[in-house]
Amino acid sequence: MLQVSESTRMWEHAKTSAEHGDVVWSPVKSLWYTAHLLIGFIGGALFFSWSALAVFIVLTGTTVCLGHSLGMHRRLIHKSYQCPLWLEQVFVYCGVLVGMAGPMGMVYQHDLRDWAQRKKHCHAFLRHGESFLTDAWYQLHCELKLDDPPVLKIEPRIRDNRVYQFMEATWMQQQLPLALILFVLGGLPWVVWGISARITISLTGHWMVGYFAHNKGELDWHIDDVAVQGYNVPFVGVLTMGESWHNNHHAYPESARLGIKTDQVDPGWWVLSVLIKLRLVWNAKLPDDLVSRGTEVSPQATASHFNYL
Ligand SMILES: [Zn+2]
Ligand SMILES: [Zn+2]
């Protein structure tokens, strides 16, 4: 008999466990990462140009902000704001271009971690619990095979959407149209920097922020009886488009705003604020609308420090 867990997409059997399983090498994930790493480093040095570097910066910022953060994470996974379907699909497509997974794969990876981290105990893979280098090997080259995994049930709105099904089936190939455009506009330097160097930095950065955000940083809220706390990692607030305020995210997972205090920079929220003014985004949820999962541990973390636009 299946029972829904606290995460509405994860369903559990009586034997389901977040703790027991094996970490195994994932050939596709590992080769995908290693190929872009080698092309990005070697090709990046051989084909450096200032315009290629500019393309790398603009494309990385756009895909991480609009795609990974606003499209995949804040909208598709957490439904933290509402917008027209066409805009959601544009954002999710930008998220596919990050080169991490398709829409369903991203929902699965995220919700499995979210589900596991709220248990009393979970496998080290799911809480970034090993050393820095072991965790790099785990997250960038391996996958976890749980002995008794939960069952993911994605809502029909996403699961049956033909556009998302297409993106899921072709997420790796989706680099090709962009690569072609870059080649026509700027030749090989733009392709190497705009595709492989960008994917390498995005995947490496995502792992590294995940590692620190579950091991050390600032803690304003503490959640009892869970396998791991999320920490705020302030120095990468801008680079992660606000995603590094992970202690806030563990306390308020459905909040559209991640940097919720005055000094917590959240570029993703800045973009959402503009879209709200343009009436392309509405019903953005904020911590005041939600019940915190944690208890406040910092005297500064009071509602008066929130600075909503
Ligand atoms: Zn987390
Ligand atoms: Zn999340």
Report what the structure shows:
The chain is mainly alpha-helical and 309 residues long. It has one domain. The chain is 51% helix and 7% strand. The protein has 11 helices and 7 strands. A 3-stranded antiparallel beta sheet has the order 1-2-5. One zinc ion (ZN) binds next to α10.
What would you say about this model in short?
The chain has one domain. About 50% of the residues lie in helices and about 5% in strands. The protein has helices at about 25-45, 50-75, 85-95, 105-115, 125, 130-140, 155-160, 160-170, 175-210, 245-250, 265-275, and strands spanning about 5, 10, 20-25, 140-145, 150, 220, 295.
List low-confidence stretches. 301-309
Kindly state the percentage of residues in helix: 40-55%
Number of alpha- plus pi-helical segments: 11
> Quick one: how many beta strands?
7
What's the topology here?
Blueprint: E1 3-4, E2 10-12, E3 21-25, H1 27-46, H2 50-77, H3 85-97, H4 103-117, H5 124-127, H6 132-141, E4 142-146, E5 151-152, H7 156-159, H8 162-169, H9 175-212, E6 221-222, H10 246-251, H11 267-277, E7 295-296
Antiparallel strand pairs: 1-2, 2-5, 3-4, 6-7
The protein binds zinc ion (2 copies).
Residues 73, 77-78, 110, 114, 249, 253 line the site of one zinc ion (ZN).
Annotation keywords:
51% helix; disordered C terminus; single chain; two-stranded antiparallel sheet; 11 helices; 3-stranded antiparallel sheet
